[in-house]
Amino acid sequence: MKSVSGKALCKIVERYGWTLKRVTGSHHIYGKEGIGVILSIPVHSNRDLPTGTLKSLLKDAGLTEENLD
Length: 69
Description:
Blueprint: H1 6-15, E1 19-24, E2 27-32, E3 35-42, H2 51-61
Antiparallel strand pairs: 1-2, 2-3
């Protein structure tokens, strides 16, 4: 699995139609029209997300590892 920071993942999900709803502390909360899922992406400067967290966020967003490019 490719390592990605929280900032980079935010840009990726925005490309696929997710919109930033609010920022609570260091977590960016994203939503998408017509989907009842909320993404909570931890943004801790440029630290890479743990693999399990990244996989879970991609699954919730309906994205795959190929979408990270």
